[in-house]
Each structure stands twice: as C-alpha cells, then as structure tokens.
## 1
Amino acid sequence: SCAKQHRGIKDKEILPCQPLYLLIHLHPNRDISLLSYDSGFMNLMKKLLDFSWGNIFSHLFSFLFGIVLGMFFFGLYYSATRKKCAQTLSVEACRNASEKIKKLPGLTAAVATLPILGVYGIFFASQWKVYLSAFSKVLPENFTYAEYAREGFFQLCAVSVINMLIISALQSFIRRKGEKPAVITRILSILYSCATLVLIATALAKLILYIQQYGLTPKRVYAGWFMVVLAVLFLFVLAKQYICRIRLIPSCLLVCVALSAVLFLSGSDRLIAKYNVDRYLEGRLESVDVDAMKDLGDAAIPELMRLAKAFDRKNGTDISKFDADEYYDDYVYHDIGCLLQDAAYRERCTFFSFTLPRYRAEKVLEAEGFKPVAEKKKEISYAVSPFSYDEVIETHQPGDPGVMTYGFANVDESHCRTAERAVERAKRECSIDYEDLFVALDEENEMWEICFYGADFVGGDQTVYLDFNGITQMIHYGE
C-alpha cells in the first residue's frame, strides 16, 4: 500500500509537467515547419542546426575557449558580488601605487623624448610643400589622388599610438610636486599632442581632397571617422594640461562611444549614396561608380532611382521600361537599370528579415513600376579566371579548322561588363549540349572567354569570345 501510495504521489507530480514533457519530445523539424512560411527564419534555423564535421576542430576550439572565458567571467562576477579582494584594487591602493612609480626626473625624460620631437620637426620641414598642398587643394606632382590620400595613413596610426604611449609614460613616471604635473611633463605632452594633431590635420586634408575628386565610399568614411576620433582624444590630452580637473579616461571613453553611435546609427550607407549622387548631378563628380554603390546595398536604391530619373529627363528614357538586352549610349544608365532590376527581383522583406533600408527600397521600386516577383530570382555567380586574347588570336587564325569569325547572333551592342551578362550573351551562340562552362576575362583587351564543355564526347567543346559591348568576335569548336 505504501508503494501504491508513493506511486500515486509520483503520478500526481507528473501531471502538471505533461505539457512540458510533450513540448520537449516534439521533433524540432515539426516545430520549425510551423514557421516555414518565413524564408528568413528558415535560413537562420538551417544555419543554426547545420553541423559540418569538417569543422569539428574549429568547433572544439571555440567550445574550449568558451569554457575558459566563462570561467574568467564567473570568477569576476563571484569576486564582485562577494567583495573578494576588495582592497587590492581600491582607490587608495591605486593612488599609492601610482605615487610609488613616479620617480623619473623631468630632465631625464626630456633628454629621452626631445630627439623624437626633433625627428618630427625635420620630417615636417622636409615635406611641408607636399603636406601644405592638401590645404590648398592642389595635387603634388608625381602623385595620383589615391596615392596622395593613402600615403602615410598607416604610419599616422602607428605614430598616434606611439605618441599616446609616450604621453602616458610621461604622466605616469615623471616625478611631480603636489597634485599638478611637473612643468616639463606638461610642455612635453603639449608638444607631442600638437605634433600628432598636425599629422592628423594633413591626413584629413588629403582625404578630403580625394573625396572631392572621386566621392565617398565606406572605407573613406571609416578612415575619416577614425582620424576624427584620434583628433578628439589628443584634444582632450591637450586640454588636460591646462584643466587638471578633467577626468581623461572617462572623457575619452565617452567620446568614443558617442562617435561610434553617430557612425552606426546615422545610416552612413544612405548618406554616402546621397552625397555621391548630389555631387554628380551638380557636376562636381565626373562619374558615379555603380559597382561601389552596389556594395552599399538597399540603402543606395532610392538614390540610384533618383539618378536614373535624372537620366530619364535628360535622355528621354523611362527607367520603368528598362530592358537589359537593349543598347544604351550611357553605360552608367545601363548598370543602374540592371542593379534596380536585380533589387526588384529580391524576395519581399518579412518580419524576420525586415530592415528599414530594404523597406524604403521596396517602396521606391514599387512607386516607379518595378514590381517584385513572387519567387526570388536564381542567383548564379561564376569564378572568373584571367586569359590572354592575343595568345588566342595567335593560336586560332581565321580559316583554321573549328574557327568561326562570322555569322554570329550577337551583332548588336549591349553592355557586357559582368560575368553573368557575358554568359547570357554567349548562350545565344551556343549550339551544343553542355554540362558545364568556364569563364575567363582579358581586362586589357576587354574580352570575355566563355567555354561550354560538351556532354556527348571528348573534344566537343565550344568557346565563345565576345567584347564588353556584347558583340561576338570569334567562336572556336573543339578542345
């Protein structure tokens, strides 16, 4: 009876847990299938549940590293909540340790650091014409805009770090009287800060000159943002020498967080696209790099549509009736149309894949007549290898067996600057059953080589050679 009574208690305890029991034993694929209507969620779950045995060692290393990291954070949390070693890093202990290491005489520090400032002075004196030309917006001789902007950027980063370390060492080790730093410490800190600020100013001037000539890109924005952050940090160091009450480290951290928020939350991709389009329409940029705008993603679609409408007003065209197979005098307009069409073919954003740039892009495309399709267009990317068309001409002469130089289907111009477009044009010439194809590019001669591998027998291949205008120049049959 005791056993029955005990068994009855167990049964009663299980009853409230039955829904949880059923939930745990449901197959994951059945649960996920309930949300299969959203492809974005399905793709996310496939990535989470997919496991590749080829990456077992990478996963194992990540697991072990996670354990070590977890032990560290657990110890940190445990020590903080239980107040272990509370006196080790107290304010008083840190202040005493800081005072103990301030033993370096000011004269010794000056002798050790002034030669570096002398090197900076010699450098500025020998290169002042090159650097001052950036402020006058004149490109020096024997330089391109890209070379002029990039020259010395990474050296600037290294010099900034070195100067910050030197200033920190001066503040930490030079002997002081009272609360204020020694006069020599303040003088040296001011000199190093000013030298760094001059370097940053010249680098920013060169970058601005480069941007005015070729427009904005994400890398240029990030480089400019980084130099602004460095300038603000050294301005704080400079202000610290006059206002001792400034808490330098918290102020610098606050500035870094604030400027990071400005960069990440400002929608930099949209601003980059708007700046480039505005400059082009104003006549200050010679052309718009559509490939670079494509890298901005959905944020560039509204601005590209605005640019396409400007072309329509100028040339009497209609972007809503754009056809990639037709020839357009302006290849920029053709590339913009192809990009807008590709954006329209993308699947509509859903709850799990919603982004504000994508939502804006969809609204702009729909307003201009670009209707998104129900199914996502199949995207095919090709690996492109280099080849020499000059060598091909030397090997395959007109009149040789298997060489065809006339009677082509592609005789009308159609801009063909991507591998996908080249393959589409080459398929119009293909007359064999093929299993696979190979794509190669000769950038110097602006020629594509599309080789179709025959499926029936060895040597039954067909290679099509066409230029960037989409016109077939030669077809070769055989290996």
## 2
Amino acid sequence: MGGATADGRIAVLDFGKTNAKISVVEPMPKMSDVLAPDVEGVTTSRDLTQPRAGSTGRNRARPPRRPRRQHTPRAIATDRPAAYLSERQGDDRPMPIKIPANLPAHDVLRHEGVQVMSEETAQRQDIRPLQIGLLNLMPKKVQTETQFARLIGATPLQIDLTLIRMSEHQSRNTSAAHLEAFYQTFAEARSRKFDGLIVTGAPIEHLEFEEVSYWGELGEVFDWTQTNVHRTLGVCWGGMAMLHHFHGIPKHDLPAKAFGCFRHHAVDAASAYLQGFSDSFMVPVSRWTEVRVEDVDLNPDLRILIDSDEVGPCLVADPLHRALYMFNHLEYDSTTLKEEFKRDLDAGRVSEAPVNYFPNDDQALPPANLWRSHGALLYGNWINDIYQTSPYDLSRIGA
C-alpha cells in the first residue's frame, strides 16, 4: 500500500510474509535540516548506511531533497551520496508502490492513483528504514491495515511495516490465506526489535479486560514493548488496555455510545506530537466506554495532550513507558462512521446517527472528512519523534 501527498511526496508500501516496506520518494525537508549554502546543492562525504563518526548512533541519515530552483541551493546536513542523486536524474523515476496483485488493498490504492514499483527500485534507498509493527486486533484487518499504512506511509521516511496478529486467536472476518501471506504471529515477531509499534482497537469493549480470550498474551506484548520497542501507540481499546495494564486505570461504560465527530482541543500545544495542530479540531469518536480525566490526573506519570469537553480525554502521553494512548480514530476513512452506523443500526445497537458527521444531518449526503489533516499530523509527528530519538543500532532498543 501507499499514498501520495499534495506536494508530490510519495509513499511506498511493499507487503511480504515477514514485513511490508514503505518507502518515500521526493521528501520535503525540515528547515532545521538545512545548514549552509552549497553551489552544487549536494555534498557526498558520508555513507548514509552508517552512523556519523563519533556519534552515539542516535543521529541517523536524513532524507534527501531536490535542490531549490529559484535561489541558491543549500546542502542537507547528512551529505547525500552521489549515487542516490544520479539515479534520479533520468525519466525512470521510481513508481510509488510494490504490493502483490492479489492483496485486497491493491485495487483500493490503485483507484486512489497509487502506482506500482519494482522490488529493485524499493531497495535503492540505501538507508536503515524504520521498523514499525502493526498489531492488528480488528476483525476487518484489511480495512484497518490500509488505514494505518496510508498514514504512516505519508511521511518522508522509508519504513518497513510488519503486520502482527495474536498467536492463538482465530480471526473470523479475515481469511486464513490473507493472514498466512501477510502477517506474523506475535510468537514469530517477539524475537525482533522495532522502532515503533501500533496496537489497534478491538470491538470488545463490553468485556472486562481480563475476560478477553487473548488478554494473557496481550499482557506479554505490552511487557515486551519495554525491551523491544522504542515507541508504542495504543489506539481506542488498545490504548485503554495499555493504560489498564501499566497503571491499573479502568475504563467506564457510557450510558450511550459516543459516536460521531466531536470538537477537541490541544491541552499541551508544545508537545512534539501536536506540532502543527490547530487550537481546536474535529476527531471521529466511536466507543461505548471512556477513560476519565480524574483517573488520569491522579497519576503524575501521565499527561493529557488532547481533550474534549463532550467526550473526555483523547490522547494521553506516558513517557515512563514510551507510549501514547489515543482513544479516538484519526485514522478513519471518510465513510467508516457511516459503515459502523449501518452495522449497529442493523444489529439494533444504536438508533441515532453519528453527530456532526452527515452534512445538515442528511444521511443521503456524503460525509465530509473534517479530520484527515490532523490524522496526518499526529502520525507524522509520531514517526518523526521515532526518527529523531530511536538508536541507529536496533539492538540498543530497550538496552
């Protein structure tokens, strides 16, 4: 899977049995990466596959950029290799995606305008990619993996995405062939180290945590992140589960489902994870339970980053465990809430349409996506924080 940004940056996702690779070409540099004028616009004194001389390994290769055309080009701090630049001068520019033709996401992304690239082209970016795992607990795994891959693939960094599932739990909504082809079990992945791990939600909010059939193994996953993962992001039920595991904080049942798009505000605007965020913004919410402000505030190790007057905490930082807990759904597609509404309506679980979602509350009109830019910001900031802080040597993670 993959995606392209409006400014021409292109995300590349290469699925395989052991991992899925996201590469990004034509990255947009940060101003902090630009150091000094250079007539040629490039310098070539360092191999990007190795840490800087005398460094601790934390300063890794910065992504390359094209020289500016309207004024004197300036050099990037990381000194791009001439070989990488020379292969980009012709017309055979890399295509954005390498995925099997039989992967369900293939047609979805093709219709979004994402093209296919070769394995050889994907391997030309001779830098250490970030290793990101996606522990997918959702029943509709194809839809979920597409949503998260699209977000983390929109950053100007090369990423290897590993799809992970629980070892013993049998999915009833995703074919065994798909799981066998594209997923690792946690038992298979636990010997590896990752720069980042995303733990998705699961539609099991009505159960107490300890009643979940795979709760024992999930607890092992959470403990494993403290030695094998640099940064972890728990989403919706996944975030609540991590908060309960590490801090004993409960989830509370709601009298009615929190469902729709709700206004949120940035509590800690200086947080690196909220760079570029508006003061207030809309976030999709779809849950039957909540984490309460007073429970979080009692713990000095936790910090609320995003909150809502209507539906409570949205994003909580846990620096002690190098984790973020996101209780809502900035990863959702434009029509996800509509699909959930139809599902719940057919099952008799809800009768009210998602709020602030359909234009003029007219369910016949296509819903407007009011959160896409902030979803890209949050996941882009998370990936950038990983890039800035994760050790170059993967073996040092958790050391």
## 3
Amino acid sequence: MKPRGLWACGYGGVSLLGLAVFGMPDRPWILAWLLGAVFVAGWRSEQPIARTLFDWLPVLLILAAYDIIRLQAPSLIPQAHLQPQLGFDEFIGFGTAPTVHLQRALFRSSHPSVFDYVCLVVYTSHFVAALAVAVVLYVRARARFARYAFTFLACSLAGFATYVVYPAVPPWMASVRSALPPTVRIPDVLWRHLHVEILTKVFSGNPRYSNPVGAIPSEHAAYPLLFLLLFWAVASPRWRVVLVGYVAAMAFVLVYFAEHYVFDELMGFAYAVVAFVVVGRVIAAYAARSGRTEPTAVTDRDDQPAGSAGREREPITRRSDDR
C-alpha cells in the first residue's frame, strides 16, 4: 500500500475509534475533521479534485473558523467591551461619535434613499469580493494564489482570535445599551424594506446567524486594504483609483451603517498591514530556502500564450539568491 493510502487508512481508523469512544462529535469537531480529511486526501495528490480542495484549504479554514467563532457568540455578548472604541470615536467627533453625526445628517429610516442602497451594495460586496477574486486568481495565476489565500487567512484568523479575547460592542449595540445616542443598524432596515427575510435575520443581531460582537478589528475594513496591498504593484493607474476608492467607500459605509467605529477600522487596517508583511516575508524565506523564484505580486502570470507579450504584462520575478 502506498504511503498516501496508509495515511488515509490511519485517519479513517482514528476517526472511527474516536466516534466509538466519544460518540457523535459536535459541529466544531466535525468541521475540524472535514478540514483534516481534505488535507490528508490532497497532500501531494495528483487527483484534480483532491488537489483543488487542498489548494483551497486556507479559504475553507477561514469559513470554518468564522462558523466556530459564531457559535461562541452567545457567551461572548455579555463580556463585550464598550471601550476604547467608543471613547476614541467621541474624541475625534468632538464629543459625538461620527456614526451619530452621519445618521442624523443622511439617514431616514422610514424613507431610505438611493444613496443608502448604493452603500448597501458596497457593504455586501465584502461577502463575495474576496472569494470571487480568489477564484479568478486560482484560474489565471495559480502560482500566486497561495500568497493571496494565506494573507487573507492570517488576517482573518488574527481577527477571529481577537473577537474571542476582546469581544467589542459595535455602535448600533451601544445605542441599544444607551451608551451612545440613538443609531440604527442600517442594513437591517434596508433588508426589511426589500423584504429579504433571511438577510433581515442575519443583520438583526441574533447570534444564531452572526457574531454581533466581532467588531475589533473590522475585517470589513481590512479586506479592501488587503486588495490594495496585494494588487497595487501591478495595477494600472485606473485600477489604483478603484482600489483606493473601495477602501475609502467601505470605511465610510461601515461607520455610517453603525456597524463599526473608526477605531475598529484603524485596527482592521493594522491587522491587514501586519498580515501582508508577515506572510510576504515567510513566503520569501521559503523561496530562499528552496531556491525557487519569488513573485513580487500576486497577479503576475506564470504562463502566457505565445505572442502575447505585447498584450499582457510580463511576469515580474526575482530569484531569492539575487538579494
């Protein structure tokens, strides 16, 4: 029997033994088992489906980790902190948090404007943009997919760990607790106006559907900055404007929607920068040890069709021994 088969049999045997001794596991253990199964099946595998699942393990780990943290939300809500985020925002808002200023000036809950729905599109893009870009990158520049996936993984897991260690009250919840002047969670209002029941439940603050105290750092703010950091080196001037605009638009919407304080966003930016730098250095160190070429940007292409040099950007690489 090949080593792969031995590993698979061993994993299956240990799993059955655990099932016999401890009974049916709860959801977190099932998720961990599934991730382990993907690892065992895909490690150095030439089977396309197994290898693809293995390549996507960082993304699957992000989804599984978020689900596990969400399950802990009921126990985290009573421990959630109001400070320092509230005090910081009141300081920069000259005594009143920017969320309160923005909603007083712009939002009417009985008559949402077109502007509010445009903001909703920006806000909702968080849930699809990272995954959509990952798919495109995996298809068109697979050798650079790992840098992208592991950077998002590092930022996400650091954020999730902080949610457990320091659960934080977002602006809309601070208003519910009378710690902040009245604000509303605008996505909840807009989904109700659109009669989208399931999304209304998700944004209602019910911990069954999301983690309402996962506020510091703001992953919503961190992800757009990760796009900017990862793609800036190869982006055209027009796309650089888009990248900067996306960061700014998301930052505005999060505060306006009472989802995050400015403080949360600054923490999200910090986590994004650290993840980008650390993962980049780890990959560079690995490339130096293995003697491989190291891409300088995640969007460099490995393979270009013959005669395409005039139409596509040339790969920009450097050898690790040239530094």
## 4
Amino acid sequence: MVILLGTVMAGILQSSLQTTLTVPMLIAPSLLAQTPVQSFEFGGYHFYLKRDDLLHPQFSGNKARKFRYFLEQELPDIQLLVGYGSAQANSLYSMATLAALKGWHLQFYVDHLPQWLQQSPVGNYQAALALGADIIAVGGKEKYGITVEQYLRESILPTLSAALYVPEGGRCQAAEYGVRQLAQEIHEWAINQKIAGLKLFLPSGTGTTALYLSKYFYENKIDIEVLTCAVVGATTICANNLQCCVMMNFAIRGSSVPLKISFWQTLS
C-alpha cells in the first residue's frame, strides 16, 4: 500500500516555517512533481509513503497539486482570488501563497474567527495574514441563516470583477490538472517497482483528490484502488462532495464512471 503524505501534514510543516517564509519563493511548476517514496514497516505490514509534503516549503501537499493549474496559467485578467473554509485550513495558506506568487489579492471567508486567534494568531491563519490575505468572518449560519458558500454565491461573487473563485478545499474541475500528474507519478513508480494491484490511501476533506486519482486510474484501466477516510466532517459529507464532483465532471459528458474508491471508517 502507498500512503499519500501531504494532505494533513502540509499545514503543520508550513506553519513551522512561517517565521522565515513570509515571502513566497519563486516556484518552477516543473519542480512540483516526482516527490520521493519511502518504505517502512508497521505492525508487520509493509507500506510506502509518497512524500508530497516535500513538494515545496510553502506550496505542498494535495493543495499544491490541486492549485497547480492556476499557478501555471497566465490569467492576466485576474486580480482577486476568493475562497472559503476554516481559519486553519491548509487551503488558506496555500491560496495565500498562490495569490502572492501571482500578484493577486486573497479574500478568504470563514464562518467565524475565535477572539483568541485574532489576538494571538498562530498556524496557517498567521502565515496567511503575513502573506497579505484578508480573512473575513461572516457568521454564515448564525447571521444569515445560510452557509458561507451560499452567502458568497448570493451576496459577494455577483459584485466582484477580475476575480477567481475557488470552492472550499479546491473542490473544482481545475484540480484535475495537477492531481492527474500525481496519478501518473504513482503509476510510473508502481511499474518501476513491479507492484501489481496497488492500494493507495489518503485522508480526505472534500474528497476531490481521491476522486481525480480514481478517475485517472479507471480511464486508463490501471489496477490501483484508492482508499480514503473523511478526516474533516462525516463520511457522508465527503461522499456527497464526491457525488457532486462526479455529476459536474462526468454526467455532463453522458458517461457513467464506476469510480473505484473505498471509504475507511474513522474510529471515535
């Protein structure tokens, strides 16, 4: 089994470097690839770690893969990047880095900001502030009776121009571009290692990375199974996100794709 490292760890590693990396380094997109794979034993089982946490000090993990499309495209008419999520989301820091690299401004909407965090910023929240991000609390459910996403779509996005909107966690079709390259790397590695019937595990928030990995393996008739578990929210939420992505990417093409994704239940 290969475990994809970066989805959770990226934010921790980035935050530990935030005091010295407040200004983004220039990133050559060609370097955001071919991360090493490490072998280890645990509980009598053999595992491999795909070290996507080593992609780049500030732009790593699955968010770097999902946002790669935006990094590589010129997009000359864009001045504002808009997103939403939690105040400590990995996507917040990754989007702040992306915005700084592209010369854009980031507006990131959250449901609430704890007073203690505003008074003593830490983690991804602090790192994103240092990169010039505007992190805006809207009190979605309490104040407006709707979610932050609904509030953005109904009240904010219609008023903006020259803006690029990225749904929570990079849950959009553009994410396929970078995740597809990740799938190719894993497949090439499995061929070189002469491993058949590989199982690939990664934790999921929205499930977008798991979806596009599985889509690539299915379309190319590659015998790699994607295993995932919901680490943010319930498994049903992640499954619903996957279903929305499936409808957005496949149903409109008139095709039916039996994705090979298995959910592992988390322990309470």
